[in-house]
Design goal:
globular; alpha/beta
Length: 176
C-alpha cells in the first residue's frame, strides 16, 4: 500500500443512466464495490511509480452520448471514445481544492469492448481507469511500443489483484 502522501484518492461520480446499468450488472452494492476496486487498482499501479501523483482523482462514469460531447469539446473528435484523462497536478499545487486529475469512462463503450478484449465489465472498467491514470502520469500510447508498455503495466497490476486481464488489450473499438 502506498504511503498517504503519494496516494491518489478516487472520488467516484456516476451519471444517472449509468447508475441503473451498473446496479443491474453488479447488484445493489455496486457503488462501494466499484469504488473499492478502482481504489485498489490505482493504489497498486501508483505504488511502484518513482514520483506518483497525489491528491484526489475524479473518476466519472458516463454514457456514450455524454462522452461523444466531451470528446468533441476537448479533442475535436465527433464520436464517442472509451476513456478521457486530464492531469491537473500543476493546478492542484496552486489550489488544493483542484483534483490531481480526472478520468472519464464511457461504461457503454466499455460494455461493448469488454468481450472483444476477453474481459468481464469490471476488468474492462479497471483497464480503462488504469489506462487513463497512466496517461495522467505521462505515459503515451501513440506508438506500438508505448501502447504495449501501458497495456502490460495495467494488465500486470490487475492480474496481481486477481483479475483475468490480458496484455493484448485494445481500447476504442470503433465498430464494436
Amino acid at each position: 500500500m502506498p504511503s498517504t502522501r503519494s496516494r491518489l484518492t478516487v472520488a467516484l461520480q456516476v451519471a444517472s443512466p449509468v447508475a441503473r446499468l451498473l446496479r443491474q450488472e453488479f447488484g445493489s452494492r455496486w457503488r462501494p464495490h466499484l469504488k473499492h476496486a478502482f481504489q485498489q487498482a490505482i493504489d497498486a499501479l501508483t505504488a511502484t511509480e518513482p514520483h506518483p501523483p497525489a491528491g484526489e482523482l475524479s473518476l466519472y462514469l458516463t454514457t456514450d452520448l455524454e462522452m461523444r460531447a466531451l470528446n468533441n469539446l476537448y479533442r475535436g473528435i465527433e464520436h464517442t471514445t472509451d476513456v478521457l484523462s486530464f492531469n491537473y497536478s500543476a493546478h492542484a499545487a496552486e489550489n488544493p481544492e483542484t483534483p490531481a486529475g480526472e478520468i472519464i469512462i464511457s461504461v457503454e463503450t466499455a460494455q461493448r469492448q469488454a468481450p472483444l478484449n476477453q474481459h468481464d465489465l469490471l476488468t474492462e472498467l479497471l483497464m480503462l481507469a488504469l489506462h487513463g491514470t497512466l496517461h495522467m502520469m505521462g505515459y503515451d500510447d501513440s506508438t506500438e511500443a508505448g501502447r504495449a508498455t501501458m497495456n502490460a503495466r495495467a494488465a500486470s497490476v490487475l492480474r496481481q489483484l486477481g483479475y483475468a486481464a490480458h496484455d493484448e488489450w485494445y481500447s476504442q473499438y470503433e465498430n464494436a
